[in-house]
């Protein structure tokens, strides 16, 4: 089947078998290897990507279901050579060890933080409960997400202030 | 927050990890990320039976599927003399079944095809006719003289694998006879599985023209795997290139050699094309190296003040269909004889018997330092049973029995010499920090109100760093490890090691060790591991051995570099070598402040301006054979609250105070502890791989075999004491496995403590809520 999918802002047109899973489409057709396969039963979340802005487990979505849709993967987080705050915070706070869960974890964290930056520990733990990490014990992941949230809120505030300054200039 | 890699004198600092930039961008390169031109895919046909005769295998329909290149059965391998392979434990294991299958999900045939999907489709068309045999699931039944013999290939016609005993039996018995108090406890450590997030897999790429085999594999021990492969296949070792790429977690699961690996290699040898095999989660849990499965009985002889005298332990170890445990050769039950723990037992006697059953083969793996987890769990659990019997506080009983600081180096009655420790200090810190006295007060008040709250203590001793060549080998290969350092003209260095990390942060910590020794920064050093063509020989990363072995090698290798550098520095400073001293950052002329030269200048001179007659270059290799093992220890305290209505256990607090000697990177050490505690939590409350009476595996996926998510995982608190190892070059002891070795008993002790007013003395793991609920119901606490 022929599908057209927009991934990280770029449009791809591909021929896929109807049974091709989105995760294998991303990994093997588009060479985007960030999303990983860990469990085959939709438990682990290593394959998490955003489909039209919502986190999905790409091992449980068919590539054809993404036809005409927007997909965002871990490869889309960094913009113009600048790491997204959530990537930077995972690095600073030691929120990863083997790195296998990290792309999926980052996408879940990104999705949470897009909605709300000031998250409690409980909200974060609930928000990432579909992503299993076998190495870190989650404490530093929680810290990293809180830290990223603070940075995003500050940036938002700064942008708001700037637009107010520009606004008042008019 | 972590600090920059450009920091000089980086030892002991939380330097930001060098490996992270690729992982946070999704650019880690794990085994399934590698794709080679012309690559084929392999799928394994597995047995639905735990025990059955193979009547026939018909591959006709599968071979007709377009895109199928090759199907291999056990009979095909038998013709090549490859149907069986040696295990690391000195047993043999079927690669593909011939005659009969011995466990459910056993490898029966493989299909190699153009794509993952075609291989999978065709595998389903391989028609295998079985004749079911009764399955032997209970290890105690398997030990009975009239039990059916599972391994007909062996000369020995029973299911007994080994008997191992350590200690003085007669002396121990004498002490038991005269003891004032004896406690006895049966303790089961259930079958669990390390389940790293990335399953196992490999790509075998045999080049028929050059005769060279390149084998990409998720291996914690690439050099050892190359040697084993050379022995099994007959391929010359120098023509086998093993590359272990980024590994998505190991925890011991990626130490053994699995049948799928051998089949992928055979297929590539036959076809002359790269063959990839990536297992599914079910294949990972149901067929690769499981852990534990020990049935233990411990007895402690003590006086009425709780001073322990002797320990007696009897254990039955269920190894499944083949003894595929990855233990050092002389230790069929690993280092289980650390079971006297942190206490000054006068005498001890331990027996372990290994037995075959119709279950998946393996043993040992899961962050456990060779059966140390079982030993630590057993002694810490039994010490609490003694405390309860004598009505002595659990912390107090431990203080009464600790090996004292001044007793080190301490010879244990089971044959180890503990290097160093200060158990009192560590437990005192833990008790103070958690507010033990107040918690006991709160508990008493709650008990009066019918509420169940518990405090569990674990004061464990680890044994890691295998190991000294006089005692430790695997298949005859001594368990030293190695480092090679090349300092380039501009003062930047490459360090290569015989170990292979899987998330432990070696690229950072080993850079810190070498940077500290050479006066450079971690940013100046590139650490490489996992490529047998470039790295020096070593036995790999598991059992917390990297820092005690390769860490020692790295430090001593750097010092070897520094010796030569000192000579060059003397030449540059135009003084004699005796007048030069190293201050940690530079070479100085004694008594002449300001007259100094740094390592980068020396490095340049090593290639441009040498003393007369000196060999150019600044490189060294060091093979480090440790004189002894290292003995990290810790004091863990867990506080739980029990829901009277449901039996659910809430871990309110968990504090881990660890002593792993010198700390290289506190951030990484803390991260290791968080991760290991989470695994211990999973084992204590969630994880088990049960089999039904027909040998069906009842938890072959992550819906039935539970791994902790962020939601149920407690918030971990940590602290540390530092008792350096007196014999390790930098005083480090290793830490990765301590939290898994130290934590399960803290959880269980806490739950038993909570329920002790109801007369509970022991609960076997995993402590599911229904087990607690049944106790509460039986005692009329709930309906």
From TrEMBL, chain A:
Q: Which InterPro entries match?
A: 2Fe-2S-bd, 2Fe-2S-bd_dom_sf, 2Fe-2S_ferredoxin-like_sf, 2Fe-2S_ferredoxin-type, Beta-grasp_dom_sf, Diverse_Oxidoreductases
* Residue span, 2Fe-2S ferredoxin-type domain: 1-77
Q: Which Pfam families match?
A: Fer2 (PF00111), Fer2_2 (PF01799)
Which Gene3D superfamilies does the record match to this protein?
3.10.20.30, [2Fe-2S]-binding domain
Keywords assigned: 2Fe-2S, Iron, Iron-sulfur, Metal-binding, Oxidoreductase
What the entry lists under PROSITE patterns is as follows: 2FE2S_FER_2
Q: What is this protein called?
A: (2Fe-2S)-binding protein
TrEMBL record, chain B:
EC class, as a word, reads oxidoreductase
Task: Give the matching InterPro entries.
Answer: Ald_Oxase/Xan_DH_a/b, Ald_Oxase/Xan_DH_a/b_sf, Ald_Oxase/xanthine_DH-like, AldOxase/xan_DH_MoCoBD1, AldOxase/xan_DH_MoCoBD2, AldOxase/xan_DH_Mopterin-bd_sf, CO_Mo_DH_lsu
Q: Which residues form the Aldehyde oxidase/xanthine dehydrogenase a/b hammerhead domain?
A: 25-134
Q: What is its EC number?
A: 1.2.5.3
Per its UniProt record, what SMART domains does this chain match?
Answer: Ald_Xan_dh_C
- Going by the entry's taxonomy, the superkingdom of the source organism is recorded as Bacteria
Q: What keywords tag this UniProt record? A: Molybdenum, Oxidoreductase
**UniProt KW Oxidoreductase keyword:** yes
Gene3D superfamilies named among the record's database cross-references: Aldehyde oxidase/xanthine dehydrogenase, a/b hammerhead, Aldehyde oxidase/xanthine dehydrogenase, molybdopterin binding domain
Keyword Oxidoreductase tagged: yes
One Pfam family recorded for the sequence: MoCoBD_2
Q: Which GO terms describe its molecular function?
A: carbon-monoxide oxygenase activity
Which protein are we looking at? Aerobic carbon-monoxide dehydrogenase large subunit
Its ancestry begins with: Bacteria, Bacillati, Bacillota, Bacilli, Bacillales
